[in-house]
């Protein structure tokens, strides 16, 4: 209740304002004080009714009394006249007016009991109205929670209060549409101690607290109820915003738990694929479709190796989850299903053939950084679910080559591994080049051709002479070799690779 509301009451219809005062000041109670030491019985927000019986009558004493009374910060002072005073003493009115406290004269025959009853009745009706509106908003917010969307909660709150309402993230950015305060101001307000409401940008911000951590806030603009003159948040806005913050917290908690469950289901499914245990039965097919995996598609197996050492600390586990979440987001942004799993200090994932590894790596933003969270390696692309176990083995063999800030492919590391004596790498190198030639018709001629080319330094004249074939036949065989292996023979690195593969093949021969 405000002073201007009090003056609309029947008992105060004959009241006359003496000096300037703030009619927006809040009235918390009406009280009759006609005993000595009047200021002792006055509290802030009191609508003070008095006959002036105990007031002093000399100018200096009245002025001192006025200053003492103003320091009590009453909502207004009403003096019954004429009786003990013919009019409101200016010595008392002046210090009250200086504090913005209205001074009123009321006809002496108006019963104070009627004024007190009407003021308190109005206050009780306002409080009951706040409770009714709060209950309606409470029920509406509870129903909105069933929709599972913080946007629904913010809209319901805005409709109930008749003003803008926004849900903000822990970073201060708005999660729902509508006018919102500056993110930096929200962040600073959330950082203040305590979990209670705080004034912000002409409105009220209530923190959303989950497990002791602030996960954002609910902000309502001014106008959701009556504005308190002391700058304190409006009761209705606070009640509604606090309930909305609780609902938002529960929604965020449910979403987080759902994300954890979905991630764990995804982890288990990806682990099944990488371990070669995909059965292809209807249940497995349905699960694959739900998670976005194509059993007949072409995938490379990727591996993020984090820089955190084993055993992982709590911070290391949190960092691994952040890396997995970031990777899921990047895969989704590139139009790929986020098929991800975690193990120890690594994050496994399936990379569709349609998504270049370099593009994913660039989106991840870990490249060439001394402080990167880790490095990335990936296998060759293969078709079918059955080939993923082989891709996992390839990626795992590259783990030692994963350096923070660096991207490495299986083909890129194959030669160094082969030169270091890795038998698997040597077998893969020779099989990758000679295998395609030996699997087609005319294999002996193609293998003899590439061996002779390597021995003659890729001289076509010498090779044709040694093999006793026409130059056109040699060119035809060279074109077939290039088509089958995908490597142009004119490039120096391809020739060096062929020389190494043939030397290894002769040793294992």
Structural class: alpha/beta
| Cα radius of gyration in angstroms | 41 Å
What sort of overall outline do the alpha carbons produce when their principal axes are compared? Answer: rod-shaped
Largest beta sheet, briefly? 6 strands, mixed
- Strand portion: 15-25%
Alpha-carbon distance between the termini? 99 Å
Helicity range: 40-55%
Number of strands: 15
Q: Stretches where pLDDT falls below 50 for ≥5 residues?
A: 223-233
Summed up, the helix count is 17
Overall mean confidence score, pLDDT: 85
Summarize the structure.
The protein is of the alpha/beta class and 509 residues long. It has helices spanning 3-6, 59-71, 90-98, 112-145, 150-161, 183-191, 235-274, 282-291, 314-333, 357-364, 388-397, 410-419, 423-438, 443-455, 460-467, 471-485, 492-508, and strands at 16-19, 29-32, 46-50, 76-81, 103-107, 165-169, 198-200, 203-210, 213-221, 298-306, 340-343, 346-352, 374-378, 382-383, 407-409. It has 17 helices and 15 strands.
Task: Spell out the blueprint of helices and strands.
Elements: H1 3-6, E1 16-19, E2 29-32, E3 46-50, H2 59-71, E4 76-81, H3 90-98, E5 103-107, H4 112-145, H5 150-161, E6 165-169, H6 183-191, E7 198-200, E8 203-210, E9 213-221, H7 235-274, H8 282-291, E10 298-306, H9 314-333, E11 340-343, E12 346-352, H10 357-364, E13 374-378, E14 382-383, H11 388-397, E15 407-409, H12 410-419, H13 423-438, H14 443-455, H15 460-467, H16 471-485, H17 492-508
Parallel strand pairs: 2-3, 3-4, 4-5, 13-15
Antiparallel strand pairs: 1-5, 6-9, 7-8, 8-9, 10-12, 10-13, 10-14, 11-12
């Amino acid at each position: 209740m405000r002073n201007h509301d009090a003056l609309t009451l029947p008992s105060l219809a004959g009241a006359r304002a003496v000096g300037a005062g703030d009619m927006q000041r809040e009235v918390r109670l009406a009280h009759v004080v006609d005993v000595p030491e009047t200021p002792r019985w006055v509290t802030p927000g009191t609508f003070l009714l008095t006959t002036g019986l105990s007031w002093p009558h000399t100018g200096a004493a009245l002025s001192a009394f006025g200053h003492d009374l103003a320091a009590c910060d009453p909502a207004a002072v009403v003096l019954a006249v004429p009786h003990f005073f013919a009019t409101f003493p200016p010595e008392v009115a002046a210090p009250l007016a200086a504090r913005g406290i209205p001074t009123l004269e009321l006809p002496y025959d108006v019963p104070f009991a009627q004024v007190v009853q009407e003021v308190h009745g109005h206050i009780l009706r306002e409080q009951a109205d706040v409770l009714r509106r709060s209950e309606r908003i409470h029920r509406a917010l509870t129903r909105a929670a069933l929709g599972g969307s913080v946007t629904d909660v913010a809209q319901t709150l805005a409709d109930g209060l008749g003003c803008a309402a926004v849900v903000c993230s822990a970073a201060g950015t708005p999660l729902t549409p509508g006018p919102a305060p500056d993110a930096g101001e929200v962040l600073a307000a959330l950082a203040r101690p305590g979990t209670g409401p705080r004034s912000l940008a002409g409105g009220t911000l209530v923190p959303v607290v989950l497990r002791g951590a602030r996960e954002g806030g609910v902000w309502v603009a001014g106008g959701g109820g009556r504005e308190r003159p002391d700058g304190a948040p409006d009761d209705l806005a606070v009640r509604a915003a606090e309930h909305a913050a609780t609902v938002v917290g529960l929604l965020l908690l449910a979403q987080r738990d759902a994300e954890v469950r979905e991630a764990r289901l995804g982890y288990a499914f990806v682990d099944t694929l990488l371990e070669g245990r995909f059965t292809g039965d209807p249940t497995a097919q349905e699960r694959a479709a739900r998670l976005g995996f194509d059993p007949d598609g072409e995938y490379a197996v990727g591996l993020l190796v984090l820089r955190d050492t084993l055993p992982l600390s709590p911070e290391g586990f949190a960092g691994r989850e952040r890396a997995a979440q970031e990777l899921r987001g990047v895969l989704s942004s590139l139009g790929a299903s986020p098929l991800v799993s975690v193990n120890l200090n690594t994050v496994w994932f399936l990379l569709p053939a349609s998504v270049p590894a370099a593009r994913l790596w660039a989106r991840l933003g870990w490249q060439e950084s001394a402080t990167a969270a880790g490095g990335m390696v990936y296998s060759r692309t293969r078709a079918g679910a059955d080939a993923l176990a082989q891709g996992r083995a390839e990626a795992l063999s590259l783990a030692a080559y994963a350096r923070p800030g660096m991207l490495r492919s299986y083909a890129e590391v194959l030669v160094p591994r082969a030169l270091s004596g890795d038998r698997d790498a040597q077998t893969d190198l020779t099989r990758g080049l000679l295998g395609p030639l030996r699997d087609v018709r005319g294999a002996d001629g193609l293998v003899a051709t590439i061996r002779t080319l390597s021995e003659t330094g890729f001289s076509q004249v010498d090779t044709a002479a040694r093999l006793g074939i026409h130059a056109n036949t040699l060119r035809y065989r060279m074109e077939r070799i290039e088509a089958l292996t995908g490597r142009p023979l004119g490039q120096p690195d391809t020739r060096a690779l062929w020389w190494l593969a043939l030397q290894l093949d002769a040793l294992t021969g």
